[in-house]
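2024-03-11 09:14:02 INFO worker-7 job=invfold-0412 stage=load source=structure_tokens
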């Protein structure tokens, strides 16, 4: 067993408590990662308020260094990685390089591990729920699978790497993989996901990128990251303003494509 510290949610709706925990050794293709940086996502906050599987450790934007590996692991000790969502690797979507649509996504990511002998985490010797998004990275150490531990280039700052595991890939992926190339796009909300969508829109070649957010500092950052126009939705009718800015042509939106 490996001693660690983790932010443990003891009861739904409470604040997590930083406390000592233990992790078992990695098995199968698992890796043990020493966490060097982790982001806080709104999903962590929402699920912490709703989860009935406490005690539980959340966190799903972790980055760090592999310090131990299971016998079938495809990562090596000393490798620096960013942790992302878990996928089974065996369903039709996974085998066709669509892991975001994994058939087991809900079980592997939202529900966490079982509180039995298979759980990677122990609190006062008793198993607790871990494995949130295949990692539970609100801790000094986390167990993940080889599939959701993505190698980082040498020298990559873990503080910058951590959001790549969720918010950045969500925003950029929504534009590049779902919406596709469009001449103009409006992004409502310039948080981490929205700002990533702004960057994805510029990568996709959109000429008009409109960022809509009530906070001036977020609109300023959106402009730095590629938004050609920023709007404050509290200052007027944002939809009408967008139509005016695009010459009466509505910004295009393509509904999500269902994998085939």
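2024-03-11 09:14:09 INFO worker-7 stage=emit residues=260
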């Amino acid at each position: 067993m490996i001693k660690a510290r983790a932010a443990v949610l003891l009861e739904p709706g409470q604040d997590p408590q930083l406390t000592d925990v233990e992790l078992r050794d990695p098995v199968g293709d698992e890796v043990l990662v020493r966490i060097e940086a982790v982001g806080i996502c709104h999903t962590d906050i929402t699920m912490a308020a709703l989860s009935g599987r406490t005690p539980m450790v959340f966190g799903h934007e972790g980055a760090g260094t592999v310090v131990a590996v299971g016998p079938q692991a495809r990562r090596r000790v000393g490798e620096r990685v960013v942790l992302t969502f878990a996928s089974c690797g065996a369903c039709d979507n996974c085998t066709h390089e669509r892991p975001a649509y994994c058939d087991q996504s809900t079980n592997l990511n939202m529900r966490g591990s079982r509180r039995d002998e298979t759980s990677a985490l122990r609190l006062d010797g008793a198993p607790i729920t871990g494995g949130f998004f295949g990692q539970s990275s609100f801790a000094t150490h986390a167990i993940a699978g080889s599939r959701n531990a993505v190698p980082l280039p040498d020298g990559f700052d873990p503080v910058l790497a951590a959001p790549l595991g969720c918010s950045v890939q969500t925003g950029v992926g929504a534009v590049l993989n779902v919406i596709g190339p469009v001449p103009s796009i409006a992004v409502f909300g310039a948080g981490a996901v929205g700002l990533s969508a702004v960057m994805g829109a510029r990568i996709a070649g959109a000429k008009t990128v409109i960022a809509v957010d009530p906070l001036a500092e977020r609109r300023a950052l959106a402009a730095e990251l590629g938004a050609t126009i920023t709007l404050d939705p509290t200052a007027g009718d944002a939809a009408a303003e967008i139509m005016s800015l695009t010459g009466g042509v509505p910004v295009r939106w393509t509904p999500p494509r269902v994998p085939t």
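2024-03-11 09:14:09 INFO worker-7 stage=report msg="Residues 167-179 form the longest helix (13 residues)."
2024-03-11 09:14:10 INFO worker-7 job finished
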